[in-house]
Amino acid sequence: xxxxxxxxxxxxxALKNGGVIPSTTKAYRVSDFDAALKGExxxxxxxxxxxxxxxxxxxxxxxxxxxSLCISKSLTVMECPVASDGVCNRNKPVHFLPYSVL
Length: 102
Hints:
By secondary structure, this protein is of the alpha+beta class. Helix content is 24%, strand content 25%. The strands form three sheets. It has a two-stranded antiparallel ribbon with strand order 1-6. A two-stranded antiparallel ribbon has the order 2-3. It has a two-stranded antiparallel ribbon with strand order 4-5.
């Protein structure tokens, strides 16, 4: 394997190692993702993008859609220069669903 993944690992492993496991029932805080990514990639400023979906009870849930790491011109992971969060609300639970249900 070569490139960024070979040098820095991968997002799935980083989250798993940090205790953030995809689930259809458990919700996380953005700070849980922050801690997992800090442990693997050494950065604390990343971008989170969420979408909202209505569950069977009619309640809107915040779903993690994408995580963006910033990469320098020399292809190293770096702190994002500004908070680049999309529509994730850091004060509300975030659901991280398994790929199989997406």
